[in-house]
Each structure stands twice: as structure tokens, then as C-alpha cells.
Design a protein that fits this description.
Blueprint (H helix, E strand, L loop, with lengths): L9 E10 L2 E2 L1 H10 L6 E3 L10 E3 L6 H5 L1 H5 L3 H17 L11 E6 L5 H14 L8 H5 L3 H10 L5 E4 L5 H15 L4 E8 L4 H10 L28 E8 L1 H6 L6 E10 L12 H14 L8 E3 L6 H15 L4 E3 L2 H4 L6 H15 L1 E2 L15 E2 L5 E2 L4 E8 L3 E9 L1
Parallel strand pairs: 5-6, 5-7, 10-11, 10-15, 11-13
Antiparallel strand pairs: 1-2, 1-8, 1-9, 3-4, 7-8, 9-16, 12-14, 15-16
């Protein structure tokens, strides 16, 4: 594939990941490229008796040991995941908060639901034990911007601090927003991505009623199967994926290793329905074409797509048809959600990080559980095992309830 012609606007210099596939970028990448079945999905006591009583969880994470008891008490779990991922991304980028200009550091983190499980707990406390048992920390622990504010406080970042809430495209929109902040000159460094943790009986019960989630209770590890002919819905996961983005000249001036370039961003609204995407995929198509125009690349330049690929019957088909229409059949396509779960607002951050690693390693992770490809999905989807390939440009696509679409174009450094 030919390289993108336009110099990228944001340099990716650090990656931090916490997922059900592994704690840390190295562990997660190993799982999504080397393991044939997810290990982080299991039945949850909180979801007992629901049609979908399982989810993906980062059970290997010791948040208390990493952050300390006092800090954990002041953060909902989704914010804890964000802080841990941010620390890894900072270390990976070789940044020292003691020496940077903190007023030139932005934090932009997306989440779909914020601290929803804590809302559940506090509602139970109110109804069962009265108002005096409701925590005064309800608002600061549960608002969507809590991840961004806690990361900013943990790192001492005093530039723009934003919480993005665009449903399942939140992490991708957060990265695109950070890209725009860097381009505008509002900051030199941005820590951006997404974080989510929603082991919520209320939310999963609603998703079951919507028939959006898989009900394969007898085999949770095989339940999430993007693009497979036998798919029946997504499986919720928790996680965080944060990237350090810098103005390229700033990264070069401090001698940073540039892992990839974020060259283009596009966003759009379907303006169609609360939960269903535009049936022709025109909204996500506009976002993708905008990102490509921003990066000044053509379909021929793009060698890999990390798709939204949730394992829902209709959405996978709509997205795949759109990708074929815009990019043709040549890019290698994958969905990594069968290894991480659908992490909702965190998905774009996690999957963009994996796209950066794919560019670096020239290796596309497989779409796990894709046993019988849907004949109505006309794409070259990587399955069974990771595939080596040469490509200089990759795309990440995201769709969210309410018709929120986003796409990023990334290039090799």
C-alpha cells in the first residue's frame, strides 16, 4: 500500500490498556493476536437469572494495589481503569509530569455510561435503607467526566479536560477531539481515549429486553462472534484504552518515539433512530469519507480496518456493506471484540490502540469465533489466526446509539 501523502497532525507516543484480555498493552496485544478463545468472559453473580448473565471483566487487575485504598474509594471503577491506563501510556511515552508544562496538557476521555453500577447501589440504599444511607459522593463518582477529571488530577494536567459521551463511539470521538485540540494549538500533549465498567444488572436487563446482547449462556466464550453467520448479539466488557497524542514537532523536539500518526478524523450523525443505525450506513460512510479527506488518503492507501463489529445481526451487515462500498474488498478487516467484549464507550480507545500496534507490527489480529462467515458480508476478514501484511495506513470505525459515528485514519510513523 502507498503511504499517506499528508503529514499527520498528531503523533501517537504512548499506549495504555486495561482489558479483559490482559492488563497492559503487551498482555492485551498477546491475547488478541495469539489466543484462539477469550479467557476474560464469565458468568457474573450480579447478573444471575438474566438471559445474558455473563460479561468480560479485567479480573487480573488489582486496582487497590495499584492506586491505593484511599484513591479507590474516591473513584468509580471506570475512572480507576482510566487512571491505570493513563499511567501506562505516560510511561510508554517517556513523559514525566514533573517536567512538562502542565497547562499545555489536555485530557479527553469518553464513556457511555460513567459510574452506572454505583447509581444502582445507591438506588438500592435509598429504597431499602432511606435517604441518609445515600452516599454524598454519588455525583462526583458517576458523572461521565469523572474519568477525565481523575486522570487530570492524577497527572497534574491543567490544560483542557473533557468528558465525551457519544455512546459506543465515545472513545473514538475523544481521540478525534484531542486531535483537533492539538491541531488548533490549544495544547502540546493530549491523553485521550475511553473507559467503561458497567457490570449493572439494570443495564444488562434492558439490553436483554432490547435483544441486543447474546444469550449463549451455555458457552459465554463463544457468544461474541462478529461477522459470523450465527451471531446473535454483543457481550458487554469493561476496560480502558488511552493514547498519548502530541504535536509532531513537540514529540520530535523531546526525542520521543513516534509509534504512529493520527492523520484524519471524521464524525457524523445518522439523525435516524435512537438505537438503530441508518440502514444504508450513510452516516458512518460520511464519517469515514471525512476522515479520509482530512488525511488526504484514498481507498487504495488503506490496508487495514479495525471495524466496530459488535456481533449484532443487523449492525455488522450494515457496517460491512458500507466498508465494501467505500474501500472495496482489499483492506484486511478485523473486529477484536470477541477477545475484549464490547466495552461501549471505551471501545474506540482500546481498538485504536490495537490499530496502532497492528501498524507497528504489520500484523492484523484475527476475528475470534468467526467460524462461519456471513455470506452477505463481502470483506476480507481475518479469522482463525493473525495475518502478516504490509500496510502504511489503517482505519478505525465506531458507531453509537443515537446515530453517533466516528472514524480515524492512522499511519505508520
Amino acid at each position: 500500500m502507498t503511504a499517506a501523502r499528508k503529514p499527520f497532525s498528531a503523533a501517537v507516543t504512548g499506549i495504555g490498556l486495561v482489558t479483559a484480555a490482559g492488563v497492559g498493552a503487551k498482555a492485551t496485544w498477546h491475547a488478541v493476536t495469539e489466543e484462539s478463545s477469550p479467557s476474560g468472559v464469565r458468568h457474573r453473580a450480579e447478573l444471575t437469572d438474566l438471559p445474558c448473565d455473563f460479561m468480560y471483566a479485567a479480573d487480573d487487575l488489582d486496582a487497590t494495589g495499584t492506586l491505593g485504598v484511599a484513591a479507590v474509594r474516591l473513584m468509580d471503577r471506570f475512572a480507576q481503569l482510566a487512571v491505570i491506563a493513563a499511567r501506562e501510556a505516560m510511561a510508554d511515552a517517556g513523559l514525566d509530569a514533573a517536567t512538562w508544562d502542565s497547562t499545555r496538557v489536555a485530557v479527553v476521555i469518553g464513556s457511555a455510561h460513567g459510574g452506572l453500577p454505583f447509581y444502582d447501589e445507591q438506588h438500592t440504599a435509598l429504597t431499602e435503607r432511606g435517604a441518609r444511607r445515600v452516599s454524598p459522593k454519588l455525583a462526583p463518582l458517576t458523572v461521565v467526566n469523572s474519568a477525565a477529571s481523575n486522570v487530570a488530577m492524577d497527572l497534574g494536567a491543567q490544560g483542557p479536560s473533557l468528558g465525551v459521551g457519544t455512546a459506543c463511539s465515545s472513545g473514538t470521538v475523544a481521540l478525534g477531539t484531542a486531535h483537533q485540540l492539538l491541531r488548533s494549538g490549544a495544547c502540546d500533549i493530549a491523553i485521550a481515549g475511553g473507559a467503561e465498567s458497567v457490570c449493572s444488572r439494570l443495564l444488562i436487563a434492558s439490553a436483554c429486553q432490547m435483544k441486543a446482547v447474546s444469550t449463549r449462556r451455555d458457552n459465554p466464550a463463544a457468544a461474541c462472534r462478529p461477522f459470523d453467520a450465527d451471531r446473535d448479539g454483543f457481550v458487554v466488557g469493561e476496560g480502558a484504552g488511552l493514547l498519548v497524542l502530541e504535536r509532531p514537532e513537540h514529540a520530535r523536539a523531546r526525542g520521543a518515539t513516534i509509534r504512529a500518526g493520527l492523520a484524519g478524523y471524521g464524525a457524523s450523525s445518522d439523525a435516524y433512530a435512537a438505537v438503530a443505525p441508518d440502514p444504508e450506513g450513510r452516516g458512518i460512510e460520511r464519517a469515514l469519507r471525512t476522515a479520509m479527506a482530512d488525511a488526504e488518503v484514498t481507498a487504495a492507501d488503506i490496508g487495514h480496518v479495525n471495524a466496530h463489529g459488535t456481533s449484532t445481526v443487523v449492525n455488522d451487515r450494515i457496517e460491512a456493506t458500507m466498508l465494501r462500498r467505500v474501500l472495496g474488498g482489499h483492506p484486511l478487516v478485523t473486529s477484536t471484540k470477541a477477545m475484549t467484549g464490547h466495552t461501549l464507550g471505551a471501545a474506540g480507545g482500546i481498538e485504536t490502540a490495537l490499530t496502532v500496534l497492528a501498524l507497528e507490527q504489520q500484523l492484523v489480529p484475527p476475528t475470534v469465533n468467526l467460524d462461519t462467515p456471513d455470506p452477505q458480508i463481502p470483506l476480507d476478514i481475518v479469522r482463525q489466526e493473525a495475518r502478516s501484511a504490509r500496510f502504511d495506513c489503517a482505519v478505525k470505525t465506531s458507531l453509537g446509539f443515537g446515530g453517533h459515528n466516528a472514524a480515524l485514519v492512522l499511519t505508520r510513523s
